[in-house]
Amino acid sequence: MNMHKDKKRQMVEQEHFDRLAGVSGEIWWGSTTQAGIKRLQRRARLIAEKISCFKDPVVLELGCGTGAFSKFVLEELPLLRLTACDISPQAIKVATERYANYKYACFEIADVTSMPYATNSFDAVIGNSVLHHLPIEISLQECFRVLKPGGIIWFSEPNMMNPQVAIERNIRFIGKMLQNTEYETAFFRWSLAKTLQKVGFCDVSVQPFDFLHPFTPVPLIPIVNKVGQMAERLPILREIAGSLLIYAKFLFFAPLMQDYLFALN
After folding, report:
1. C-alpha distances in angstroms, 244 versus 155, 157, 264?
2. 214: closest CA among 184, 178, 172?
């Protein structure tokens, strides 16, 4: 990656999320609505199911912001040893104060493209709406590096096939009104799956899910939830869901596979 461009990205993203955390105490417009909370709770439950296979798991959360998602992960797994990082010092300050009572959770400033964590440190690397802010391949390589053999990644990211997401990402002034930065994007699931495989991940799954919009009126949440989860199982309709659920493994033989794949490029 061009070093000047990467430095600019870091500055823009940091200033953007410092400002949001300072003004509202949050970094995402949909994290505090009733529907938004339901969405985060569901994601936390899905993560808890995947992490339950590990004994005493050590988990890294990327792009934690002010801890809006961390809260629900910690509620699902109160004794989880969680390290959560973000590029925004202001957001980390808010998160650290909010979760001071969680003995096994710590919040740290870090850039995902060059993380200060040792190789093979974590059982799982997770995140909610973070990868689309980042240069994807180098960020996934860092995830791969810090995972222990047998570890997993789990992310939820915006789906470029969703009409609203496509409009936000391709018509910049609309995206700006919805708190997007100039570096944000979204993903097509097929190309993202190929990138994960290129990096060296195995058992790759990138699936569209979630039709519950954060601005869904409270009385309609149960029915929208029910219909939306039915739509997730319909082959064509599911492709326009709002998010992509991303899961992959770092298997024991993965480093050999990674060396082979890199040698091909």
Report:
1. 8, 5, 28
2. 178
Q: What does the block give as tokens for 107?
A: 């919040």
Q: What is the CATH number of the domain that holds 62?
A: 3.40.50.150
pLDDT single digits (tens) 221-246: 999 999 999 999 999 999 999 999 99
pLDDT in tens, 30-39: 788 999 999 9
Range of the domain at 154: 3-264
Q: Is 32 helix (H, G, I), strand (E, B) or coil?
A: coil
Q: Does pTM surpass 0.85? A: yes
Could you tell me the maximum CA-CA distance found in the chain, to the nearest angstrom? Answer: 55
Domains in the chain, number: 1
Which of 224-230's residues contact partners 24+ apart within 8 Å by CB, and which partners?
Answer: 224/35, 225/38
Residue given tokens 């040792």 in the structure block: 118
Phi, psi of 176 (to 5 degrees): -65, -40
Instruction: Quote the mean pLDDT of the chain.
Output: 89
- The pLDDT of residue 17 is 77
Distance between CA atoms of 215 and 211, rounded to whole angstroms? 11
Please give the helix or strand (H or E) that residue 5 lies within, else none.
Answer: helix 3-24
